[in-house]
Records
---
Amino acid sequence: MRSDIAGVMNLSMLLESGPFWNVVLGICGVIMPLGGLILMGQELEEGNHELLLLTKLNRWAVVKGKFFILWSVSALSFVSLLPYVVVRYFIGGVELWQELMCGVSVLGCSAVICAGAIGASAFQHIGARIGMMLLFLGSAFVSTIIPLSASAMITKKMHEVLFQIFFNLNGLAAIFCFVVLGLTVARSRLRLVVHAYEVKPSWLVIGLLVFTPFVVGMCTVMTAGFAGFVGLIGMALVGMYVDVTPKAKKIQAPYQSTIASIPTSLSAMIPPAQTETVELSVEK
């Protein structure tokens, strides 16, 4: 990826923007989000998730709550460093658009790693957590670099506005996709009951992480390098609905159906003079 392109999730630009952004990325984008590797393990080992799911909270609410708390800590730490960004702009002579894209990229990396850490923390053994985190980061890196590189090569000769639109759409779609997939991994581990005819939900999500780069690559090729974000958004939607909690059918009380059927069934059998009497008795 070229470092002279100012866009969302352009890590080459971010790493070559000076030691300030390297330190910010390391602290707010990597170190603090990795604290999520211990979040879900406490819930699963102590059985607290079973009590949470007995309330009105669903599995999405549990994992989203943990994600927003962890990501908010990283975002607040980043906001505390914004005065240094302002000083760099007025004194250092840096470009405003590039600084803005660096800030969005740091927050995006933080969100992706937060979601991946929460998903990996849902596994009990430390080896499984490390393996899951490496798989998630590898899938995220490959699935992000493919559409961004293709978009940079294809749309660089276009008008600057069109280039920024396509490039940044791919970057934002990558953030959205892997935040959803990371939380889906954690959500799949909170499933209380898995039927005999069902595939284990966590295996399905691991399969999604493996096949996402291929799907994104195919979408990038089919759209001539412009719209790899279509595959990213599609895989995010698949991740949202791949593990659906089975719901029982709503049971209707027997007496309601019996009472409701009395006036219609008797109206054809009794004379009109007695219909009003039957209806009054039902209402009583």
---
Amino acid sequence: MIVGWFGLCSYDVCTCNVFLVSNILLIPYTHTHQTQAAKADIWRYIMIWEYGGIYSDMDSSPNTFTVDSITNEDDAFFPLEKLGIPAQYWFAASPRHPVMYLSAKHSLQTMAFRTDISDNNAAKTTGPGAFKTGFILFQQFKGIDTTGYVDEGIYTGAHDRTVRVVGSKSNENEWIIREGVKGKGGNYEAMGMTRFHDTKGKYKQLHNGIVSCIDQRYKMHVELSADWVNIV
């Protein structure tokens, strides 16, 4: 899938693994402890907030999207996914875009006060649900009420920044092909990857019950033996 992006020669392609996510970006910015799926969600918001550019899941690839799709006038560029909300698996934005800040902030606040971060539905807490909330808050700062379910068009929000939404929920692959690697259980396992859903049992086994974010943060401040590695 990544090879498909090299055809867009005007863009630099940077791939990041879990160690880069944890050690470079998350430590300076966050004060919560999350499962790897939640980390990946929050990291993408912070990365684009800080540097701008395009975020893409590793199994997404260009379809009708080209080097000319994003124009100089575009502050942010979001295709629609099948739910009718801006896609979180692929998006582009200028640095310091409010949607990125608000999505990250909402995700961090949600995770910080969870009583059990080992039992986390990332799609709702830090993933597409959080990204939708970030878009809703973005427009609310402009005095615009929205449910986050939108159509193609240009939307103005906080600080008069804008978002261009493209495509339709009836054809989510029109611009970007989603999940080009089919079967997150089968094909990914063949590559030696563990799906985050399959790690919950490990959390429970290690901690004999719940993993409170606040409790883990406290332990990491007062107990030298306590580390996020003990959870993951």
---
Amino acid sequence: MFSAQINNALSAPLDRSFVKERTQAGRSFSYIEGWHAIAEANRIFGFDGWHRETVDIRCVNESQRKIGRDGREGWSVSYIVRVRVIVGDVIRDGMGSGHGLDANCGLAHESAIKEAETDAMKRAFMTFGNPFGLALYDKEQRQVVEAHVEHEQTTDATSMIKTILSMQTATALRKWWRSTKTTRENSGIVEGTPEYADVYETFVAYGKKLAAGESING
């Protein structure tokens, strides 16, 4: 069972600024990058609160082909990988594929493996909730929002706590806290009330967590 704080973070909408687009076979696809999935896992579950492992890896293609504009001899390699993400007693698996092209056969394999593991990891994380890209499987993307719009709509303690837990950096969190002072006061979320205590305690605790992450990553 996850804590209420983690459940709130997992149910928060996906910030559109982290959504990327690519075109493949004439179709457009939305996705989040692998580094963002890892950053979100560290943010939501904690740096020591999760781990992943590659449980199956198969090379499904290795063939020579022309590569580059100059038509050099090279290698085309493809892998299928299954990655397992473990958070406490919750286990999720994801399948992914990766492809590598290089004049060096070994480098083609390395590229394909990295791409396949990242793809599989993101698919495993996706099952946890919107911040990991689940929101992108809805064609209308109703749970993908512009960050500033979502923040402006928070006028009660529960919504404010969800907003706090959706923040990506300590700097953004502090800026939001200052900008919502009037909103909190107009909503009756003022010092001395239980609502203010809940919001403020979450703000302080989560701010420290974000600051620690920025220090480690920076």
